[in-house]
Amino acid sequence: MRYNLRAMFAQRKPRKRTVTFDKVSLPQTLASDLYAQVYALVIREWSAGIPAIMAEYERSLSELTTDTAAEVSGVVSSVEAGAALLAVTVKIRLERWAAQIEAAHRRRWVAAIKRATSIDVAPILSPADMRVPLQTVVERNVVLVSSVNTQAKDRIADAVLRGLSEKKAPREVAKEIRGAVEMGRARALRIASDQTSKVSETLNEERRTEAGLSTWEWVHSGKKHPREDHKARNGKRYDDDAKSGSYKPPAVRPGQLPFCGCTSRAVLSVDSEF
Ligand SMILES: [Zn+2]
Questions:
Q1: How far is the CA of 254 from the centre of ligand 1 (A)?
Q2: Interval between CA 227 and ligand 1 midpoint (Å)
Q3: How far does the centroid of ligand 1 lie from the alpha carbon of residue 182, in Å?
């Protein structure tokens, strides 16, 4: 706890003893930014590499010798190397995105506190407090970007080598390669959206703990195909300090499972019971 919001609120002798904060949700544009500023670079690199790969494929196909497969693989690898070079800037770009996320979240959290308690915590909060959890988010995304890259490479190399061994028409192989790039793009978009809701929930928890609040309410994502147990938890209250009983939080928290868009909102009670 960096500051005691409950004590600050109690000092005001509020008539309303328990307040529930509005949930803090980040705009979808931040997910689009993550895709556009980071993941799209890798996808673009592969997209741009298609003509070179295809030129090599056509050449190899016309003069099929024993080492042609190796030559086409060489072109695929050179595109991969180009994408890997991006890794240097990927981290810097991710850090920039994380800073944007932190600022957007902080503004909304300050507003949520103000609406619920009339207390302005803006002067207390600092971006530096979130540095450690955000660093973890950045590292995780570095790994995910690299996985998107490797997967695209594997699919493309596979299409090329299979094409050569079956002497497929270039048009057909080109179509498969474009399909591989599209699959990478779709996956990257899903990851960008999922990572944005995950970081949002991480910040919810961190900022809540910092304020000394242990109680929170599960907010279901409202997604089309929900996990039924998550849907059932919507509006249910938990206390991080509860070691047993119905207030004890579940082991897996909101937003942690793959593509779980669930989140939480803070609850402040002046009295110990809510
Ligand atoms: Zn969920």
A1: 6
A2: 6
A3: 27
Residue 274: inside a domain, yes or no?
no
- pTM of the predicted model as reported, rounded to 2 decimal places: 0.91
Domain annotation covers residue 182: yes
- Residue 230 CA, ligand 1 centroid: distance in Å: 5
pLDDT tens sequence across 103-128: 999 999 999 999 999 999 999 999 99
Which has the closest alpha carbon to 22: 264, 261, 192? 264
Count of Cβ atoms closer than 10 Å to residue 17 Cβ: 13
Q: 14: domain range? A: 5-269
Distance CA 165, CA 264 (A): 54
Classify each residue of 112-142 as buried b or exposed e, where b means 16 or more C-beta atoms within 10 Å of its C-beta.
Answer: bbeebbebebeebbeeebbeebbeebbeebe
Q: How many domains does one find in the chain?
A: 1
